[in-house]
Design a protein that fits this description.
The chain is mostly helical. Helices cover 77% and strands 0% of the residues. The termini are far apart.
């Protein structure tokens, strides 16, 4: 008879003893997902009123809708280098500032150019969010909850789209498209304000030689034992990455032949 050992297995510390800061980080990540989704969804309810008030053409409306994706494309090109240079947390805060500025510009826009510019700025803000939040979660969250926290970010992006549609539907009768956009300030300011208390990425800190700060950051989102284990794993990973990125290894004795010469394949033996 086989024994059922499932019940005897301990619950991972990353789930059963998840520190408060880890839950707080998940909340902020969810808000980040809401921002992007909300930005996509709210435009649907605002287009008709915008067209009437600003005398917009069909082509102009199409560009206003696409501006968020255009801004997001710009952010994907610069988001990674910015996060590597100044850190994940400052990039999160910058993304929130850019988003809030974009919302204000859009809500106060007097003509097509300002609306397009505001939407483009919003797109850059949420584009940075989609780059830096998953990166930050992978580097900050305990292993037991890491994958689920990134999935939660994607889930709340979809929820943000739904919220945008619902708010647009609620204000549709008023025709006040400016208020529709202005409602995005609520999650935007909450995301920015709460992001101030986030810890810096321990991986980013370690790569800059700030070992004590990295340990302190891990202690805020990991249990005591898990924090030290993760710290040692990060040290090993970073050391291996530094070795791998050395081009001189291609000419090292163990790699020279494989790098410069193709392996010779023996001809297949055919049966007579």
């Amino acid at each position: 008879m086989t024994q059922n050992t499932t019940a005897a297995q301990p619950i991972p510390d990353g789930v059963s003893k998840l520190p408060a800061m880890a839950w707080f980080t998940i909340v902020i990540a969810a808000l980040g997902g809401v921002l992007y989704g909300y930005d996509i969804g709210i435009i649907a309810g605002a287009l008709e009123a915008m067209k009437a008030e600003l005398s917009l053409t069909g082509s102009q409306l199409s560009l206003i809708v696409a501006a968020v994706l255009g801004g997001g494309s710009i952010a994907t090109l610069v988001g990674g280098p910015i996060a590597d240079y100044i850190g994940r947390k400052p990039t999160i805060l910058i993304s929130g500032v850019i988003f809030v500025i974009g919302v204000i510009v859009t809500a106060l826009a007097a003509d097509y150019g300002w609306v397009l510019g505001g939407r483009l700025i919003q797109g850059i803000g949420v584009g940075l969010v989609t780059i830096v939040i998953p990166l930050y979660l992978v580097e900050v969250m305990p292993p037991a909850i890491r994958g689920r926290s990134v999935t939660l970010f994607q889930l709340f992006l979809t929820i943000g789209i739904l919220l945008g549609y619902l708010v647009g539907y609620f204000f549709h009768g008023t025709g006040d498209w400016r208020v529709m956009f202005a409602t995005a300030l609520v999650p935007g300011i909450a995301y920015l304000a709460l992001g101030v208390v986030l810890p810096q990425s321990p991986r980013w800190l370690l790569k800059r030689g700030r070992r004590d700060d990295a340990r302190a950051a891990l202690a805020r989102t990991h249990s005591a034992g898990e924090a030290e284990t993760t710290f040692e794993e990060l040290r090993t990973q970073i050391a291996e990455e530094n070795m791998v990125t050395r081009w001189s290894l291609l000419l090292a004795p163990g790699y020279r032949k494989a790098s410069l010469f193709q392996p010779r394949h023996e001809p297949e033996q055919r049966g007579g």
